[in-house]
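Thread: 3-acetylpyridine adenine dinucleotide complex, take 2
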Amino acid sequence: MATEGDNDTHMIDVLVIGAGISGIYQLYKLAQTDLFFRAVEAGDGVGGTWYWNRYPGARFDSESYTYAYFFSKELAQEWTWTEHFAGQPEIERYLNTVVDRFDLRRHITFEVRVVSATWSESDRAWTAVLSDGSTIRSRFLVTAIGILSAPQFPNVPGLDEFEGEAYHTGLWPKHEVDFTGKRVAVIGTGSSGVQVISAIAEQVASLTVYQRTPNWCTPLNNSPITDEEQQQLAASFEDMHTQLMSSFAGFVHSFSPEDPTTLTPEQRREYWESLLAAPGFAKFLGNYMEVMTDKDFNAEFSAFLETKIRARVKDQSVADKLVPDHGYGVKRPPFETGYYEVYNLPHVSLVDMRETPIERITARGIVTSEGEREFDIIVYASGFDAITGAFDRIDITGTDGTLKDYWAEGPHTVAGAASPGFPNLFFLVGPHSSGGNVPRISERQCDFVNDVIAEGLRRGATRIEAGREAEAAWTAHVYELNQGTLGAQAALDYTYGVNTPGKTVTFRHYDGGLVGLTAKHAEIVADEYAAFDFS
Ligand code: N01
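Output below.
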């Protein structure tokens, strides 16, 4: 194992962009090799998503122990999660512990962004220009930049005019934000909005929620991990890893084996009641598969959830606005703790932006078609330019042009790991690979990418390029799986790019889960990596 001490124009072997969940694992893997490597990270600490999204209420909605690393049993024994769904501070502590425990911090240059990366055919290397003006030349470039890391503000005028405090959930400051007695607006009701709204509602003087699309929010059912559970978790470390890595999407939950057509509506409801009492993603991934694929079962489950929302919200005219008109699961559903009860508080109001859209932000507050409301704090929970957004923000130029142009009409890749025309560039968690519990997907992808690089080095190659045929086959597979699904029919989710003005509406996620990705990797290996050109 070796590393380059500083950012200069020496040639290194591998440059990793990002020190979040995937970047840390990638560094751990590189540290087992004799390659020269370095990571650059925009934040002043590690964690990626869990560094930037430090807003009140931010926490896992995958079980903590399913989100953690599995590369070290000692680490798993040394670290104990306090809750089934850990909060952001604990997650950030965990990631820092990992980095220090395995001495990875010294490989990371903090507080710099990669502005551009350009491939040189004569050098067979990438030159990355960093935001501090320095450059790094590297034979291989590995992006660990996440799929939800390019924060996006509402496209309304006046954002800079507001004279109060304004924060984006994905760019939350390290200092404490005091909401006590403040008039607060939250724009956006995705997973971040739902978490922050629930966390601050009791503290504020007034809370106004600006909602464009209501979501199907179901209880997270978080709880402390008992001593007995800790012992069980410690004892089942290997089994848990095997279970997760062979599951559909890297979660502990798996679809019900029962055929709902053989059950009565009462039996289905009884099962759904049990799901609502179960933790996290059970409502989605522990459901009948048919709820996600058949519009009638989907409508029945959605109607069941509607009764739950209406029972929790006292004012039915508010409940009318909170009940989605899309089916459950066609848009990534948030998980909540006390969310719907927030709307029973006298100082909380809900603005339906479909009826009264935001026209502009002013020095004092927010103007909708209904008039102006004044605020001390505006929270933008308005999401991200998802999946390809973080790639578009780096000027990546390969053999025939930029990656942004190459993916302009939609990404095309070999197994989400690489694209033709961009030799020696690999993506960990990027387009057309993700779709599940991110650390498990990224573990799989990271192992694969490092195997491809190792194979190239074993063959004495200095250039590894994804093949066009393999790219066409994987892209066709991604769209084929997605075609006709309830998600594709609705095309409401950020995985289609619909939340980003001007972005081509096309599917950027992957519906085959960890299972599909694993099968593809195995096929590529069995085919002696013919999907890649080594030279
Ligand atoms: O972002 P989002 P997020 N005018 O895009 C609204 C993960 N995550 O940060 O739905 C008005 O879901 C937008 O409205 P609409 C998780 O994968 C996990 O909340 O586009 N409104 C929506 O309501 C999640 O899915 C956890 O109509 C505008 C909201 O802003 C993903 O991150 C916690 C608007 C954005 O919701 C993203 O979640 C948090 C505009 N111009 C996040 N633009 C865990 O629990 C956007 N909106 C692990």
